[in-house]
Specification:
Helix content is about 50%, strand content about 20%. By secondary structure, it is an alpha+beta fold. Strands 1-4-3-12-9-8-13 form a seven-stranded mixed beta sheet. It has a six-stranded antiparallel beta sheet with strand order 2-5-6-7-10-11. Helix 7 runs antiparallel to helix 8. The chain is rod-shaped. The N and C termini lie far apart (about 125 Å).
């Protein structure tokens, strides 16, 4: 298995990075839970934590999203999915050790971000921009994510996870649910927290739409290349990829703007209707062409037979004309001889 080991720089730099990262965690601990991960496995890609808070699993209860965070050289790279995209979660102990394993099944690939310094006077202010898949493409293709934690690190948040609507199933005698959902309810019901959350949600994750478009175009081209789709002509693979991308766009927009989502659905339905009409015309045209081709082939066979018969008739008539011509010449010669006599 390919293991990706992300180093964290020198010892002094690492300590300062961990301190800054911990400060950010303390600011968010009222409406979020951050659990250190000892090992993260996604398909053939894996990463082992080299120190505390190197790799984190974060639950943002009010925003309803799960985030994998990796601290690398002072820069946080993260993947995030919505609670609604988690189709299954199994928490179980690891045999032979006190560690716990959490296996998550995702309905769609996560979103990828990297940390960037914001252009403000506050040196601790950070922002996140879209980035490409930093797991060698495994997170974009593999639905199952396996996370290892130390003893009781994840099980104490199991109650809050279930209260938040995650489909969690505890197996193998894991630790009892020790975390109440009161903190979650407080985070969701707090008016100040709700206003702050709404402001954060309305803020775009990046100030460069052009960069977003470039990244999405790269992902689309990679998907087209991996599926061996054709860029021109009729291609069911390309049609399926574009349909999935359009559906993702409709879902993402419909969450914040239901009216725009409804309008996009109408556009999608009308476009699908137009495509179906063109496909019907194409199929009927192909069928009509096949029928005409069959008729032309049958007519060509009949014409060839008629041509052969006519050629035989011409040969017969030519022979008859030659015979009659010879007879006429013979009679003319005989009449000349008789006239001379």
């Amino acid at each position: 298995m390919y293991a990706a080991v992300l180093n964290g720089g020198g010892p002094h730099t690492r300590e300062s990075q961990r301190g800054n990262f911990r400060e950010g965690l303390n600011r968010d601990n009222e409406d979020a839970a951050h659990i250190p991960i000892t090992k993260l496995v996604i398909g053939s890609w894996s990463i082992v934590a080299k120190y505390d808070e190197h790799v984190l699993l974060s639950f943002y209860w009010a925003e309803r999203k799960v985030v994998w965070e990796v601290l690398h050289l002072g820069v946080v790279r993260k993947m995030e999915v919505d609670f609604d995209d988690v189709t299954g979660a199994v928490l179980s102990p690891v045999s032979g050790s006190d560690a716990e394993r959490l296996v998550l099944e995702l309905a769609r690939p996560p979103r990828f971000y990297r940390e960037t310094q914001a252009s403000t006077d506050d040196s601790t202010a950070v922002n996140y921009v879209y980035t490409t898949d930093f797991t060698n493409g495994q997170a974009s293709q593999v639905q199952r994510h396996s996370l290892l934690f130390s003893s009781c690190a994840a099980s104490k948040h199991a109650g809050t996870m279930k209260a938040a609507g995650l489909p969690l199933r505890v197996e193998g005698g894991a630790m009892a649910l020790g975390d109440s959902s009161g903190r979650l309810d407080g985070a969701l019901r707090s008016p100040v927290g709700a206003l702050a959350l709404a402001a954060r949600l309305r803020k775009p994750p990046t100030s460069s739409p052009r960069l977003d478009a470039i990244i999405l175009q790269e992902q689309l081209e990679r998907e087209m290349r991996e599926c061996q789709a054709r860029y021109t002509g009729i291609c069911p693979v390309r049609d399926r990829i574009y349909t999935a991308a359009f559906d993702e766009l409709i879902v993402a927009i419909g969450k914040d703007e239901p009216k725009r989502g409804m309008m996009l659905r109408r556009v999608r339905d009308e476009a699908k209707l137009s495509c179906d009409n063109y496909r019907t015309v194409f199929e009927k045209s192909v069928n009509f062409g096949c029928i005409k081709l069959s008729q032309a082939v049958a007519l060509m066979g009949d014409l060839e037979a008629q041509t052969s018969n006519l050629e035989d008739e011409i040969k017969r008539l030519s022979c008859e004309a030659k015979r009659l011509t010879d007879l006429c010449e013979s009679l003319a010669h005989r009449e000349e001889q008789r006239a001379k006599a």
